[in-house]
Amino acid sequence: MGTLKTYKEIKANLESLLIYRNIRDDQVIKSIEAMFKETKRDTPSNTFLSSQYNTVLGDLVCFAEKRAYKGNLLSNYVLDLILNDSNVFAQSCEKYGDNIESCLKDLAIKDLRTIFSIMHLDFMSFKNMSKINGDFILDYNPTLNKDLYKPYNEEKKFLCQIDCFDDFFNSLVQYYHKIGSGILSSNIAFKWVDDFGIVPVNNPHKIELNHIIGCAYQKDMLIKNTDAFIKGHTANNVLLEGSRGTGKSSLVKALLNYFHKDGLRLIEVGKTQFLHLSTIMNELSKKNKPFILFLDDISFEDTEIEYKQMKSILDGGIETKPSNVLIYATSNRRHLVKEKWEDAPTLSNVGEIHSNDSVNEKLSLSDRFGLTLTFVKPTQKEYLDIVFGLVEQKNIDLPQDYIKQEAIKWELNQNGRSGRTAEQFINHLIGEHHLL
């Protein structure tokens, strides 16, 4: 077992955490603290220590499968606590890198030395008190969620393997600056939820750019605009408008999977939440990371006022949009605000000075996007190109003439020609012929 002096020192230092004090509220850390406390007794209870040891092992396995930990489970777990604690030091590193004043830096170093010692704690020294051989936590291989957390675990893997504290601290600062802290460190897609703010999407869409067939021009323009944005160059807010099912939303989601390793994050905001846009912008302005606000399938009735908030932000009012934020919106309408007949100038209202102003205000929202990409309904040839592209992706081995004939029947009987219709047809084909 580790020395009593070591346990006493770690216990005392845990109690004095300042910057990373939230870590003490974690259940696994509480169990380890309780074990340290028990070892200070003149006659420690082996029954209690065994119970706490088994509890920690069980918790670590549960989290290992949830987060796809590989290797030393205790090191992975404690490192997650560090990375997910969005404290003032972590937030400062996000924004300024290693350009941190010594007062804050020294406090963080003191806390992190203690937490680093737990990361590398010889927890197996307790195993003689239990009937469970816990050696598996030293080199664990998970079963669940390996693909889901692969990007995150690849980024943090090197931090787990650092033995020298000074090297660990410097690498952690760079990690904060490049990747972020809190939920930003382990997620790439988010949504805004009233009363909760920015909430991670645990299982974002996995679609890749090369899976989207057709719309080559739109894809190329969107990639170039996003690439410029991520590199800190001038880029435009984008409106993707056009027919239903033509790949507008899928293209935005695929961009995230393409650029997330470069730091890109996506936040979906619903139409009813547009009044919170200023709050969202203010929160994101504190981060050293590019964000796309994703406004999916938007349009407004003439009685809805949310479009004015959006228009103000796109225009650049007194409160400007942060340079690390772009808005990508999709809509089935070219003009996002519905125009009613009574808005149009007539003989009865031609003398009203503000009639045209009202119409222009409603129609001008879409003009505020610097880049508008139009998606049109595919021709039959383009539709069949999409179908056969998906056939190749799915490795479907059926006669081409049969597939063509059935694909045409499908679009005539379903929702018309579109990328979505083609995908639905392929799903039908796979199910009907038991191909997967």
From TrEMBL:
Q: Please name one Pfam family that this protein belongs to.
A: DUF815
PANTHER family linked to this entry: SLR0930 PROTEIN
Protein name, entry field? Uncharacterized protein
Gene3D superfamilies in UniProt? P-loop containing nucleotide triphosphate hydrolases
